[in-house]
Fold this protein.
Amino acid sequence: MKRIALISPLALAACAPPVPTAEDFIPDYLGVETTPLDGDLVQFNVAMTKALSERDVQRYAECAAAQYTVDLGYGFVRHLRTNVTKEGGVWAADAVYTISPTLPDGLATIDAEVTVAACRETGIPTV
């Protein structure tokens, strides 16, 4: 007599990956470390989880740079470089910007006040 093993649907469901919830897609911003460099250069190290792409962590660094610029009473930021890494689910960016009271030369200029407002509207922390 052959025995047939029946696998319950519950047992099969336990093997399936969990269904993502909305909270799985809400970024968790882990903080900013700001380091003034030489002259008008400033380095921003940021970290976050649940980023969907490199652009999310780059935007976080940009928001931090804009707020720092506003806090100093300056109006503009110019992006120089951003290095992004991902390790164990944590995205990190090491970004360098110049800050300026007037519109600097270059293509990657950012109006600090406008950027801070946009960051607040989209829920990206600026500190």
